[in-house]
Amino acid sequence: MNYLPISYDIPLYRPPSEGHNLIIQATLGCSFNHCTFCSMYKSKDYQVRPLDRVCAEIDTMANSFPQSHRVFLADGDAMALPTDHLVSLLEYLAARFRDLTRVSVYATPKNLLDKTPEELALLREKGLKLIYLGIESGANLILKRIIKGASQKTHVKAIERARDAGIKVSATVILGLGGRDDWQAHIEGTAELINKAPPTYLSTLQLTLEEASYEVFMESQPEGFSFQDDAGILAEQAQLISLLNPPRPIIFRSNHASNCLALAGNLPRDRERLLGKIESVRSGAGVGRPEFLRGL
What we know:
Number of strands: 10
Number of domains: 1
CATH superfamily: Aldolase class I
């Protein structure tokens, strides 16, 4: 889209898979906003945008792009909105976009656990079909260091609650969070979490810190923390894929721009093929993504 009829409160973020979909800012900022690795919403205070103003923007977008069929509700976790507020938004979107097939949001484990199973089922009925959940790690040691505000147990409960309501979960894990000393604990805990509560989609990112978050991140790390190089990241990726044996198939991706190697497949079905690609790069026979092509 070269022309947008509404003005966004910048910075604006969305998952890569929402790149061609409409974005409506239902909230500003992130309701938690303490994760040490993340600088996305540090310039914003969390706010609930007035419903009438958001509906007016929906009207404008519907008039400009009436055939739109997917909408992402921003900012950081619109799932923090009260259920009745979300229901009003979902009903209004459905009324204004006749071809609407999916509404999605970022969410935290707390967002999901603060809502009852009945509330989540209602939101699914009204069109909320996908949530993006940043797991980051399944190791409690790592989750505490990055001030995630969640444990392995709460992540498992949150994913299961969404799944029981019929809402798909797209989860992300950040390779490198444990550094060179604690990478095995990071990966083993993460695999344990995913095997207990497999999301529909799983993506890995590679730890990349913006200047604004570097100092905050390092303050919560143990003395002598050392970042993983690409060889270490590939070892983590291989270990994670080796350990994943989910009771339900997972659509797996590592195609985010931060990754040194892009992978795509279904787990556990494609495990050996994915491990073969990793080994090819580790041995020098294959080629990963050059550093100048990486980013957030």
